[in-house]
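Appendix B. One record, verbatim.
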Amino acid sequence: MNKRTKIDAETVRQNVREGYSQIARTGGSCCGSSCGCSGEQLVQQIGYDTKELEALPEGANMGLSCGNPTALASLRPGEVVLDLGSGGGFDVFIAGRKVGPKGRVIGVDMTPEMLAKARRNIAVYRKRTGLDNVEFRLGEIEHLPVADNSVDVVISNCVINLSPDKPQVWREIARVLKPGGRVAVSDLALLRPLPPKVAGMVEALVGCIAGAVLAKDTKRMARAAGLVDIQLTAKTDYVNAMTGFNDPLYRKIVRHLPRGRKPGDYITSLEVTARKPRK
């Protein structure tokens, strides 16, 4: 890695950290404060169950999802689950109920403000569920604070696209998974390259768009990390919802697209499943 690339990567991380620190402090989201949608509206649109949402601690759902990896993973009681970029704990708390008292869910996030928010929510989660099976760790998803071969399932929701070193993220996923362990990721991916003006927008990066890569590149990186049975499923519901909610970021993106194009021509929510081979 040359010096320029290294500086650029650190700049990306700092921009993302600052953006999500602001979201943690204000309760805002990628959705923006004036888009007319709530976090609950968004996650219902992309497949979360109302009962799951009602059981969450207040503030855990921050409207930062672009899919439902906990459903995609078909979590089972007793499993150890790792959530990359866990934010306020939204998917961690949902997964905790699914794996039950003999399971465990670990959330990793690089933003101290998000981590503090999630940890404050643990007490409410314990009171509502009677479960003591979740924890949150500070760390970068490129360097996970998790032991080798220790996790049954890795989930992530609209986070890997933010990393400046996605191949390293996939290598880390493969490292921490037990043999036979599986991956269930919801992320944003590109159907075609973004116009340069959009790709250069910091707002688009924090909004989970400018850092996205082509779907075929995601599959290539997962395969290079040693994962197998990789399946990609493009889902249009998230981008359609954000466009329909008249989100400020998406309005700005539309202004920078070629005439006649819309965000859904470039961006899709992508479900990614894979597994680590058994020895």
